[in-house]
Write a structure and sequence with these properties.
By secondary structure, this protein is α/β, with parallel strands linked by helices. It is built from 12 helices and 8 strands. The chain has a single domain (about 15-265), classed as TIM Barrel (Alpha-Beta Barrel), CATH 3.20.20. It has helices at about 25-40, 60-70, 95-100, 110-115, 120-130, 145-150, 155-165, 190-210, 210-215, 230-235, 250-260, 260-265; strands at about 15, 50-55, 75, 105, 135-140, 175-180, 220, 240-245.
Length: about 270
């Protein structure tokens, strides 16, 4: 299950999805600078978990750096194959990611769902593959503007999460990322109240399918135009446990400020 802070609460999780940015040399410089920035800011890594999600070609470099320098950062992959091995050209097995010490893998991101036509069946198969190889899936769910108008704010994310985790066993460790598609890259984030409303419904799904203990431990992240100026509002909500950050995670001062959200929360 997810780690807890010294107060016994779910450990906040701030994750940076680099998407199709930074080669392996750039990733080394970036991770070094990020670690230095957070060290200079005296970040308590017992109170917030920080992870980066580089492209596949960067993972070995990031792993080597974090391991050699004993950096208190986590890392994961942006996707994986539903298949373990075989004649699947271009696919990446969860076994390969586990061998690289990846802890996490993003599954069902809206860009995969829309640009690569990944439906709920594929997302469920990839989620199962992640768990099978000892990786924690970061299951992304979210509605489009059209979905929002037609079904309301939680119907589509709830249905997507049910489909993704229905085949998992009780107590499985997962992370859920609520990313309203209409907010991603738009500069117009959901309100904290909107995020909390959906997060409550998503936690209920986890409780129903994986058990109350798993629901209590599962981190639910918000993603979609997250920045240092709005992160505190989200983190004040009781069911929002962190953020999946896109573009802002490529800006070290901005990402560092998001990670240090506790400086802004004021509670």
């Amino acid at each position: 299950m997810a780690r807890v802070t010294t107060t016994g609460a779910r450990t906040p999780f701030i994750a940076g999805n680099w998407k199709l940015n930074l080669d392996h040399l750039q990733s080394i410089a970036f991770v070094q600078k990020l670690a230095w920035s957070l060290k200079d800011a005296r970040l308590d890594f017992n109170e917030v978990e920080v992870a980066v999600f580089p492209p596949f070609t960067d993972l070995r470099s990031v792993q080597t750096l974090i391991s050699a320098d004993k950096l208190p950062l986590k890392f994961g992959a942006q996707d994986l194959s539903e298949h373990d091995s075989g004649a699947y050209t271009g696919e990446i097995s969860g076994a390969f990611l586990k061998a690289l010490d990846c802890q996490y893998v993003i599954i069902g991101h809206s860009e995969r769902r829309t640009l690569h036509n990944e439906g709920d069946d594929v997302v469920a198969a990839k989620t199962a593959a992640a768990v099978r190889h000892g990786l924690v899936p970061v299951v992304c769910v979210g509605e489009t503007a059209e979905d929002l108008e037609k079904h309301g704010p939680s119907a589509v994310p709830v249905a997507q999460l049910k489909a993704a985790i229905a085949g998992l066993t009780a107590g499985t460790d997962i992370v859920v990322a609520y990313e309203p598609v209409w907010a991603i890259g738009s500069g117009q984030a959901a309100t904290p109240e909107q995020a909390e409303q959906v997060a409550v419904q998503l936690r209920a799904v986890v409780a129903d399918l994986l058990g109350q203990e798993a629901a209590d431990a599962t981190r639910i992240l918000y993603g979609g135009s997250v920045k240092s100026g709005n992160i505190a509002g989200f983190m004040r909500e009781p069911n929002v446990d962190g953020a999946l950050v896109g573009g802002a995670s490529l800006d070290i001062p901005e990402f560092s400020s998001i990670i240090r959200f506790q400086k802004h929360v004021g509670v």
